[in-house]
From TrEMBL:
UniProt record, GO biological process: galactose metabolic process
InterPro entries reported in the protein's UniProt record: ADP-glucose_phosphorylase, GalP_UDPtransf1, GalP_Utransf_C, GalP_Utransf_N, HIT-like, HIT-like_sf
Protein name: Galactose-1-phosphate uridylyltransferase
HIT domain span: 192-296
Domain of life of the source: Archaea
This protein's record includes keyword Ribosomal protein: no
Organism: Candidatus Parvarchaeum acidophilus ARMAN-5
PROSITE patterns noted in UniProt: HIT_2 (PS51084)
Pfam families linked: GalP_UDP_tr_C, GalP_UDP_transf
Keywords of this entry: Carbohydrate metabolism, Metal-binding, Nucleotidyltransferase, Transferase, Zinc
Active site: 161 (tele-ump-histidine intermediate)
Amino acid sequence: MNEQESDIRMDYRTGYYSIIVPGREHRPEELEIEDEGSKNLKNCPFERDTVDRKNLEIMHVNEPWTTMVIKNKFPELNGSTPLDYKKGFFSSISGYGYNEVIIETPNHFDKFEDMDTKKSIEWLSAVIEREEDLYSRNYIKHVMVFKNSGAKGGASIGHSHTQIIAWPEILGTPKIEIEKAIEYKNQNYSCLYEDSIKKENERMLFETEKIAAIAPYGSRIAGESMLLPKRHVNYLLDLDEQEKEDILEALKSIIRTNSKIFGKPSYNFVIHENKNEPDYHLHFEIYPRLADFAGIELGQNVFVNTITPEDYTKKFKDNLLFT
């Protein structure tokens, strides 16, 4: 593909389409601006001495605390809302569910990608403990864990944190991915994601004995990557200790390498998993936020990606930073 050509690709995970436009690959580099939000201590509600433990705390690790989980003070969903479904032309589900925030560190200036292995495992253990509790609650069918970092990543607070939302239904992309995974297994008698590891050689960022990191063929945004265990696992709790360590070190390496390539952009990562869907395959998706969604994404649900996954793979390998 030369710089004048574009390519419309389908993402095998979702069926979404992306326009890969390599001629515009220089554009994200024009936006190399470090997000300053993490430097703002004023009125931060996640400091060790200011967090509202009395009203919000769910659990903490160590004393004084090094990781804390709190209720989201401004939740999208609420466990006290009666679960109710309305069918028909105007269908809806009442806003039942749970929103929690993991404060990853008491230090305002610490970054997720700079955690040492012990601290990363502490974070992951807190995630797993909260998932187990939330899945045990009435009507909860899906628990989503995600991180917004920086203003373009949707973070309203600079202090490093992770969010958890527990849903009464499997909705949106996870629902589509699960349906695709089941359909693929029924047709091919194998796992879609395990097969992606075998087929994505050209876009393999790196791998260990336990995990693989890929720039997916149908990446929706520039610099998108997928990180997954090679063994079929559908839920974080089922990872073995080496898989946990490898996947955490790989996750941090991807974020740090993207910062080197793109100039410390905002980013998101999302953990795609479901405790009760054995055909789903646990994976992390990491998105450096180099551009905003515009009319084509919002109006047609077709994504514009300004760096081919193949070019991103080359840049990534040339700049790879291990933690």
